[in-house]
Specification:
It is a single chain. The protein is α+β, with helices and mostly antiparallel strands. The chain is 32% helix and 25% strand. It has one domain: Glutaredoxin (3-Layer(aba) Sandwich). Strands 2-1-3-4 form a four-stranded mixed beta sheet, with helices on one face. The N and C termini lie close together (10 Å). 16% of the residues are buried. It comes from Alteromonas salexigens.
Length: 77
């Protein structure tokens, strides 16, 4: 499954989110695209105040911080 991970530089919440993502069952099967919101004007306007955010490529569904490993496992079902 392809997932976009909207993040920013030196974002401690993003570090926590990345750790939670690594703990998800089947995480090794996820294709995660890291997207720094400062690299794209549209991303910046959509996500800057909300990072970290994960977005599924197949459904467009998003989950924003705070989330737990359990929340992510439900998100990926």
């Amino acid at each position: 499954m392809k997932v976009q991970f909207f993040t920013g530089l030196q974002c401690s919440l993003c570090d926590l989110a990345q750790h939670a993502l690594s703990q998800v069952k089947g995480a090794e099967k996820l294709e995660v695209e890291m997207c720094n919101v400062r690299d794209n004007t549209d991303w910046y306007h959509l996500y800057c105040a909300r990072i970290p955010v994960l977005k599924r490529a197949d459904t467009g569904q998003e989950i924003g911080w705070p989330f737990t490993t359990d929340d992510l496992e439900t998100f990926f079902q």
